[in-house]
Structures are given as C-alpha cells and as structure tokens.
Amino acid sequence: MVSFTSTTQQLVIYKKSIADTLTEKMLHPIHESPFVGAIIDETVNVTVDKKLIVYLRIVVDGRPKSLFLANATVASGDAETITNALLNVFTSKGIDFGKVVGLGSDGIRSSIRP
Q1: H or E, element range at 8
Q2: What CATH number matches the domain at 7-106, 3.40.1350, 1.20.120, 3.40.50, 3.30.420?
Q3: pTM of this prediction?
Q4: pLDDT, tens digit (0-9, with 9 covering 90-100), for 21-30
C-alpha cells in the first residue's frame, strides 16, 4: 500500500535525513581518532542563556584537527554543571570520555580557587 505524507512531513523527514548524514560524517573522524582533547568556553547569548561551547582536537591522518562539537545550554557556570554538560555532550555523540587526554579553557571561574 502506498502512503502519502504532507509537504510539512516530507520536509521534516528530509531535514532529519540531512542532519543525520552530516552528523555521522562529522563524528566518524572523532570516533576513529586514538585520543581527543576538549576545548571549552562559557558564554551568554542574546537571550541571556548560559552556553558551553565545545571544540575537540583530534588526529586525522597523523595531523591535528580542530572540530566544533556542541553549543550546550547550561543552568550555571559551576564546576559540577560544566562537568555534567561536557559528559552529556560526549555521551550523546557516542564519544568515549576515556579518550580525552587534555582539557583547555580560558580560565573558567569555577576552576579558579579564591
């Protein structure tokens, strides 16, 4: 039996297919890299949402490469929230946190002791 879908449903299916393909293409070299380094920074966007931007340094064909990974919303900038957000990003992308060999930041306030 033939099933027809609305134009809106077709667009949703089309966009999801493109997003899945691009995500898979982006994640493949990350999964293949023997290790990763995480580079993170906190920011606040125009709607005053706190964000944690995550980049990775990986090895592709023996050469280092930097990749954007995520722009996660966080409730606060404390160490526990940032750690949990970073772990959630890695888990949601299927990245083994055990491959992380380094972490770079610009001096996140929660990591500096008074």
Answers
A1: helix 7-32
A2: 3.30.420
A3: 0.73
A4: 888 888 889 9
